[in-house]
Amino acid sequence: MITTLHILPTLNPEAGGLSQAVSGMVRYASGTDLAHEVLSLDREDAPYLRQFAPDVHAIGRGFTAWNYHPKLLSWLGENLKRYDNVIVHGLWQYQSLAVFQAFKKSRNFHGKLLVMPHGMLDPYFQRAADRKLKAARNLAFWKYVEAKLVNAANALLFTCSTEQELARQPFAPYHPRNEQVVGLGVASPPEDRPDLRAAFLNICPQIGDRPYLLYMGRLDRKKGADLLIRAFLKLKAECLPDHVLVIAGPGLDTAYGRELRQMAGEAADIRFTGMLTGDAKWGALYGSEAFVLPSHQENFGIAVVEAMACKRPVLISDQVNIYREIERHKGGMIARDRPDDIYLMLKEWLSLSEGQKSEFARNANRCYQKHYSETTAGRLMRNVLKQERL
């Protein structure tokens, strides 16, 4: 039996796509000869861990934004030898230093050390105007911690080729021993049923039978929801057809969330729902006319792929790293992450006939089936985990 340990800060789904990506990987890269365990800095009684028990080692929450935990290094020192593969998910946290130190000290670990950055080597994070202090911090961390881990690992694993290309730009020395694009699989959604839409309408009854565009994701400035709201309000002022804009995701009470709500003002056709889960989430996706994500940086976009799995076209920026595949399959529309470009993309979408929109929907699902199903990603990841050397 080949056993893989996944290490990440938290499995809390509200923390973003990293937890969802690892959760899916544990499921689709398993097999009769492959087992998985997870090491996370979560409280042992965290309710979202129930679906993983008993294969999660939750050693408690870390301290400070760096997520330092005094038990992490000793836990790794005692247990590293039990695993054939160790995958570090994400960077810029104490886990990088702890894993590297444990790896260097261990004489009994003979498996593969793998690092999956999940977009955290994207040059956006070093160039964004509002991240100057964090960019300087990252340069220091890279020199003393992250470069050592990245260059010592057996391989870096990427979700798509665009992520792989971008990771080579911002830091030096950058000399990974191997690079592998393993994709990211997204589970097939439940079949479309009337009760799914009913669950969504129970949360957002004002929509009724009106068509709507759906944004679903954390309310974070890098995801560009402000561009979407501005474009939508401009179109409304020009007598947009009877559409609603649904903004779904956690973060309503953050500074950015409050800014978005103030921007929307009293517009009755912009609805904020908070985070959607379960039937309500799938009902929102199936019922939407199109999914919209004008992000300034998006490594993969799990929600984008979930929309395509639900046969929904996606209207995204060219900063979503999987945009090339979507563009090639004609599964949606692509625009630059600028206000006028997002406005023009929405305007073009609304001018299409129902037949044209349906063709985009069919193409979106074909794109999902070919590139992002759990079958496709599972095959790639299982191959990496089974190889003795990379």
Kindly describe this structure:
This protein is an alpha/beta fold and 390 residues long. It has two domains: 2-185 and 374-386, Rossmann fold, CATH 3.40.50; 194-372, Rossmann fold (3-Layer(aba) Sandwich). The protein is 43% helix and 16% strand. It has helices at 17-28, 72-79, 94-105, 124-127, 132-152, 161-167, 194-203, 225-237, 255-264, 278-287, 302-309, 323-329, 339-351, 354-372, 374-386; strands at residues 2-8, 34-40, 56-58, 85-89, 112-116, 155-158, 179-181, 212-216, 244-248, 270-274, 290-293, 314-317, 332-335. The strands form two sheets. Strands 3-2-1-4-5-6-7 form a seven-stranded parallel sheet, sandwiched between helices. Helix 2 (72-79) packs parallel to helix 3, helix 3 (94-105) packs parallel to helix 5 (132-152) and helix 8 (225-237) crosses helix 13. The protein is globular and about 70 Å long.
